[in-house]
Design goal:
Blueprint lengths: L14 H30 L5 H27 L4 H8 L4 H26 L5 H30 L8
Helix pairs in contact: 1-2, 1-5, 2-4, 4-5
Length: 161
């Protein structure tokens, strides 16, 4: 449950509107965290049968890609979080720009990793290394997003555990 939204920079934004936004963001955040966790489980399994292992890694990676796409669509949409922050808290524009750049990098990494995992034969070591780099970038992005929300709403939306 999202705690009541704290002080808001824009008196025109109702607290329940902020809570609704935070609820949607929490859902996307948890979905991305869950997908990243599944990718980590998939890549740390024994790679004895590379083709089978690669299929499991690709399935987990598909979940990451879908969760990332939903997250990006939510926050970058007209009227989404980024637009709202730009309108009400211009001091946070640099943080928003950094998160937008993260989105582009994460999409590129997902695409590259998907191609790597689809190779025949699949290189378990190469996929694992690239997936670990992706997981680190996702973690950093999620932390930067949490910091942005804290700065904007003075509320912690949770770690998605």
């Amino acid at each position: 449950m999202v705690p009541d939204v704290g002080p808001c920079d824009d008196p025109g934004v109702a607290e329940n509107e902020g809570s609704s936004t935070l609820d949607r963001l929490r859902e996307r955040r948890e979905r991305l965290a869950s997908a990243a966790d599944e990718l980590e489980r998939a890549i740390t399994r024994a790679g004895g049968e590379p083709a089978r292992w690669g299929g499991a890694a690709r399935a987990a990676l598909d979940q990451v890609g879908a969760a990332l796409a939903a997250h990006v669509e939510e926050v970058e949409a007209p009227g989404g979080l980024f637009a709202e922050v730009a309108r009400t808290s211009p001091r946070l524009i640099h943080a928003v720009d950094t998160l937008r750049q993260d989105h582009a990098v994460l999409r590129e990494r997902v695409d590259a990793l998907t191609a790597l995992a689809a190779a025949d034969p699949v290189s378990v070591d190469a996929v694992r290394e690239a997936a670990l780099e992706l997981l680190v970038e996702i973690s950093r992005h999620r932390q930067r997003g949490a910091d942005l929300l804290w700065e904007r709403y003075n509320v912690d939306i949770g770690g998605g555990d």
